[in-house]
Amino acid sequence: EDQVTQSPEALRLQEGESSSLNCSYTVSGLRGLFWYRQDPGKGPEFLFTLYSAGEEKEKERLKATLTKKESFLHITAPKPEDSATYLCAVQAVNTNAGKSTFGDGTTLTVKP
Amino acid sequence: SAVISQKPSRDICQRGTSLTIQCQVDSQVTMMFWYRQQPGQSLTLIATANQGSEATYESGFVIDKFPISRPNLTFSTLTVSNMSPEDSSIYLCSVEDGYTFGSGTRLTVV
User: Fold this and answer.
1) How far, in Å, CA of B45 to CA of B34, rounded?
2) Contact (CB, 8 A) for A88 and A104
3) DSSP, residue by residue, B37-79
4) How many CB pairs under 8 A join A and B?
5) How far is CA B82 from CA A37, B50, B67, in A?
6) Nearest 5°: CA angle at A102, between B50 and A86?
7) Which H helix or E strand runs over A32?
8) Distance between CA A78 and CA B99 in Å, rounded?
9) pLDDT value at position B68?
10) Which chain B residues are Cβ-neighbours of A105 within 8 angstroms?
11) Residue A87, beta-bridge partner list
12) pLDDT at B96
């Protein structure tokens, strides 16, 4: 059974204080690992997809990396508008494309 | 990527009634997915909906409680039947690209 574990559950940062969110996964053949941002009362907003170990992707203050067992979402010099819940999900090669297993998320709060 | 219109965005329903949630996609997609997000928790897949066939339900979810329709390649509905307060959640649809989700339906059962 595919599993995704995110840590920490909650993270409070001061504006400008860089940090990382962790996503550990177990999957029988990785099709892709997805990072999303979710604001309260809204659906997940896609950030990144990573497909193979060693891959990295960046978008503004966010950088996602992938190993064979985990992924990190690095947040550099965060701003209050980065406050949200960040979700990690995996899709396995032996399942339908689009069928994802999600972690419980990390709720990030950035204080000015 | 696809764009999904989901409605209603929220509803407050009486115990024992049913609510049908709609998702309209702006392009044809083979598979659509329905997720539930209970308060403070992450997304759990309810079922996969293919056009022209019965939906495939995940463990713990049954067709009588969550009937799904998929009449064409751009539309799907999820009905939450005989609701109880435990059904209060956000319900989300998505498509096979893995990128795109509807904006969610926040359901409160009283």
Assistant:
1) 6
2) no
3) E-TTS-EEEEEEEETTSPPEEPTT--TTTS-EEEEETTEEEEE
4) 63
5) 32, 24, 11
6) 125
7) strand A30-38
8) 24
9) 97
10) 42
11) A36
12) 87
Q: How far apart are CA A3 and CA A7, in angstroms?
A: 13
Q: Can the peptide bond before residue A112 be classed as cis, meaning omega within 30 degrees of 0?
A: no
Chain B residues interacting with chain A (CB cutoff of 8 angstroms):
1, 6, 31, 33, 41-45, 48, 90, 92, 94-104, 106
Shortest distance, CA A107 to any CA of chain B (angstroms): 10
Tens of pLDDT, residue by residue over B65-95, are 999 999 999 999 999 999 999 999 999 999 9
pLDDT category of residue B51 using cuts at 50, 70 and 90: confident
- Cα–Cα dist B20/B18, whole Å: 7
**Which residues pair with residue A90 across a beta bridge?**
A33, A101
Asked if the model's pLDDT at residue B105 lies above 90, the reply is yes
